[in-house]
Amino acid sequence: MAKQSIFGRISTLVKANINALLDQAEDPQKMLDQLVRDYTNSIADAESAIAETIGNLRLLERDHQEDVQAAAEWGNKALAASRKADELRAVGNTADADKFDNLAKVALQRQISEENEARTIAPTIATQTEVVEKLKDGLNGMKVKLDQLRAKRSELLARAKTAEAQNRVHDAVKSIDVLDPTSELGRFEDKVRRQEALAAGKQELAASSLDAQFESLEDVGQLTEVEARLAALKTGGAAGAIER
């Protein structure tokens, strides 16, 4: 029963349509991993069952060969006893001749028994041989399927990684859209523009301060001239312009 069950599992797995199973699976990778485990375990069970079946078959073949060989040996013994009986009967020794004829009969009975044993085992050997061949074919089919599963798994993983990489690139390109004012690049550009405007404002403010300083210098010059003329008046000089 155990061998029949394993043989049934082998047949089911070999006939399984991988692509159909993957189409029905919610997670194809998990399905493939599970199938690889199932096939690997079933192959190990099948190899054990086939080894046991082959071992039993070889024992049956050995027993059959021994029966055939024993039948031939008993046939030879029967022939030898019969010839000895004929020789004794030819010289008038009937009593001993009858004994050897009886021995020949016993040998013939044993020969028939061994032949029957060999005849009985023969159909079982034929059946077991057929089972072993089917198991071997099924096992080879499972090994081919297992290779297909592993290749399919590698292909699926490669495709998944490629798709993931493509999605990452797409997302990265989308996030660096310079026309998008809400993007990081747009915000950074706006910040740079504000900093540039601030620098320009500081430069303009610095220039205005410098002009004011020069204007104050001119005012100081005018005050100095007024002071000089006032001093001249006090000393009795004219209040006109001081000759330079």
UniProtKB/TrEMBL annotation:
Keyword Nucleus attached: no
Pfam families referenced in this protein's UniProt entry, alphabetically: PspA_IM30
Segments forming a coiled coil: 132-166
Record bears the keyword Nuclease: no
UniProt KW keywords: Coiled coil
Family according to the record: Belongs to the PspA/Vipp/IM30 family.
Name by which UniProt lists this protein: PspA/IM30 family protein
Organism: Microbacterium plantarum
